[in-house]
Specification:
Layout (H helix, E strand, L loop, with lengths): L11 H5 L2 E2 L1 H11 L6 E5 L12 E2 L9 E2 L3 E4 L9 E10 L13 E5 L11 E4 L4 E3 L2 E5 L8 E2 L10 E3 L7 H9 L4 E5 L3 E7 L3 E2 L10 E2 L2 H11 L3 E8 L3 H14 L2 E5 L10 H8 E8 L1 E2 L3 E7 L2 E6 L3 H19 L10 E4 L11 E10 L5 E5 L8 H6 L2 E5 L11 E6 L5
Parallel strand pairs: 1-19, 6-7, 14-17, 14-18, 15-16, 18-22, 20-24
Antiparallel strand pairs: 2-13, 3-12, 4-11, 5-7, 5-8, 6-10, 9-10, 19-21, 21-22, 23-27, 24-25, 24-26, 26-27
Helix pairs in contact: 2-7, 4-7, 5-6
The structure holds adenosine monophosphate and magnesium ion.
Length: 421
Amino acid sequence: MNTSIPVNPTCCDEIDHKTLSVSQALARIDEFITPVTETLTLGLTDALDHILAEAVISPIDVPPYRNSAMDGYALRSADLPAEGKCQLEVVGVAYAGTPFTEEVKPGECVRIMTGAKVPEDTDTVIMQEHVEREGDVITFAAGQKPGQNVRHPGEDIARGEVVLEAGTRLQAAELGLLASLGIPQVTVKRKLKAAFFSTGDELRPPGEPLQDGQIYDSNRYSIFGMLKALDVEILDLGVIPDIRDKIEAAFQQAAEQADVVITSGGVSVGDADYVKETLDKLGTINFWKIAMKPGKPLAVGKVGKAVFFGLPGNPVSAMVTFYQFAQPAIRRLMGQTRITPISIKVPCSEALKKRPGRTDFQRGILEYDPQGRLSVRSVGMQASHILSGMSRANCFIVLPAEWGNVEAGTEVEVQPFHGLM
Ligand code: AMP
Ligand code: MG
């Protein structure tokens, strides 16, 4: 397996200055991500949110036996009348969990509850609402179908069938499904550890007073939230000032302890951007200009064995590039498959401003119009430092690179945030 980035260092300069499209960048990232191989076996509840390491094969048929879909009466289909009415004698009761095991002769039937095993000699269940009962005799009319209201073994899942593929994230439905097969534990991928830090002399943590020219470090908190939503273990290395030695030490510590290293800031070409220098020394990193808005500069590669994402410093750019690039990469690294974001097409309810050339990930509000139709509108200001817009948004409006201004009513692609942010 290829664990290094598929770029010959001697050609890095050429790559460095090249602008990549969003899909080119995603494809490049995909090439150097190798999912973790270490696994562990966990009980069902501990396995929640882990990634399945092996496919799960059903050891049983579900349902395991023929059972009734209704409360009613089980009978032999041969006793169903072709026309008129018919009477049968009730000879016993079948409860869920307590089957009726005796013979059911022609002219007889069994009172049966939903989920109860359908007695051997019977093959049809009549709903109790279609029956009149007096003492031990039921009367019902023609028109019932042979075989009705009976669930068959293996109808949901057959023994030997693959129920869950390797790479599935185990969520509530999967835990229930595994339990329904009687499986008490599963083999999952180990969790990832992600280290992250912010870079910038201007950054102060919340709670401290701001001096002239300083701002609060917000990226470390939004990145924390996005990493938590991915369910990785977290190592917060704080704010690292723009000092060469400190940045180098932080990278070294991060790479030694984590599978993924995420930083923000310092990847553009500003004077104090030492991240690039340090990384050239410690790892194999590509510095990309991605034809997207926001979030143009992105550093991607390896520091030691860790996968590295150097996100841009602007708060919205940091979140958008995390969501579009780091998130799918981390999911793949943790062994997850099926990670394409959900995207839908809806009309925009107002005009959207756009310049041709880059893919826009505008922050949008997906909502129902008064006629009950789904539509999307912009949150308003789209500059890459407007974090409040990110908070008001519930989706990205993805506008292709070649598009210019968008007229109201145009169908646009929308990626709803699904709980990540
Ligand atoms: P940089 O990528 O370091 O040039 O930063 C670009 C812009 O983002 C500058 O205005 C920085 O002050 C701002 N910025 C960088 N890091 C952060 C952060 N952690 N939180 C908030 N703003 C930041
Ligand atoms: Mg900076």
